[in-house]
Amino acid sequence: MRRGDVTAAVALLCLALAATPGRATEVRPAARGIEAIGMTVADLDRSIAFFRDTLSFELMEAFEDSGRDTELLTGVFGARTRTARLRLGAEVVELTQFLSPPGRPYPADSRGNDQWFQHLAIIVSDMDAAYRRLRDQGVAHASSGPQRLPDWNPDTGGIEAFYFRDPDGHFLEILQFPPGKGDRRWQATDRLFLGIDHTAIVSTDTDRSLRFYRDGLGLVVAGGAENHGIEQEHLNNVFGVRLRITTLRAPVGPGVELLEYLAPRTGRPAPADLTAADVAHWQTTIAVSTAERYLHALFGGWLVSPTVVAAAPARTFTRGLLVRDPDAHAVRLVER
C-alpha cells in the first residue's frame, strides 16, 4: 500500500466508524504521523559525526533539556540531556545523550531476535556503493553481507538489505527496493542515501502488538509477509529464522514494522528495568490529537511518564507522554 493510499484509508476508516449505527460518538483514533525515531547514545558528538559523515544525515538542531518536565517525560529522575535532530530526506532521527544520570551501554551480545531489538531502515539508491561506503568507514557488520531476498516470495523478492551497527552498537539497515516495490520516491537516483522507510521492532505476538499500534494508536496495516530461508538467516544473523512481518503506517512519516520470530523463539526479553537513559532505549514519536486519552487506555502497554507533560521550548511539540508497548518498546505520544 502506498503512502497516499494509507492516508485515504485512515480517513475512510474514521468516517465509517463514526457513521456506524450505535457508534455516533465513537471514532477510532488515527495517528497524525510518525514524527521521529529516537535513540539514546553514549556520546552525542560521536553519533552526530557518524550519521552526518557516513550516512549523509543533515544536522538540524541540538539542544539541552533538564528540570522536572524532562524527568517526567523521560521517566528518569535527575535527567539532564543533550539532543540532536538530524534529517535524511523527509525523515528525522533524534539522538539523545544523558549527561545525568548516565545509563548502561548497549548489550554487546545483542542478537536480531532479542526483544529490545529496533532498527532504522535507510533506503539507498545503489546497494553496492552504499556497502562500499560503510566498508570504507570501518562500520561493524551485523549481517554477513548484503542479501538479495529471493524471488519466490512475491512480497519481498528482489529487495536488497544489509544490517550494520552504529558506534554504540545499535542495529541499522540499508535497503534498496527494486522497481515496483516501496514508495515511488525510493526509486530516486540523485543521492546515495534517500531517507528512512521504517523502523523495525521485535514483537513476540503480532496480534497483541496490533491491538496496541492499530487499535490503540490508529496506525493502518499497510502490508505483510512471511520470510525464511538462507538469505533471511544471513541478513538477521539468526540461524533457522522464520519471520512474520507486518508493516503499519500513519498518513506521514516512516512506518513501523513488526518482526515476530516464529522460529527460533529464543530472543531474550527487554530488561525489566530498562530506562530512557540506557543506550538500548529507542523511542518512536507519534503525533496524536490528544495524549490524555492514553493515560487510561493503553491497549496492553504501560506508562513511563506518569502524566502528560508540557514540552521544553526547544521541542517541536507542546505536550508529550512516554509509554511502552507490550514488548517494552518505547513510544512517545505528542501533541503539536
Features:
alpha+beta; 6 helices; eight-stranded mixed beta sheet; globular; 19% helix; 336 residues
Strand content: 25-35%
Helix content: 10-25%
Please tell me what the overall shape is: globular
Please work out how many helical segments DSSP would assign.
6
**Structure classification:** alpha+beta
Low-pLDDT residue spans: 1-27
- Rounded mean pLDDT score: 92
Give the biggest sheet: 9 strands, mixed
Using DSSP, what is the number of strands?
17
Rg computed from alpha carbons, rounded to a whole number of angstroms? 19 Å
- What is the end-to-end distance? 27 Å
- One letter per element, helices H and strands E, the order comes to HEHEHEEEHEEEEHEHEEEEEEE
Write a structural description.
The protein is of the alpha+beta class and 336 residues long. 19% of the residues lie in helices and 35% in strands. It contains 6 helices and 17 strands. Strands 1, 2, 3, 4, 13, 14, 15, 16 and 17 form a 9-stranded mixed sheet that branches. The protein has an 8-stranded mixed sheet with strand order 6-7-8-5-9-12-11-10. A hairpin with an 8-residue loop joins β15 and β16 (319-324). It starts with a helix and ends with a strand.
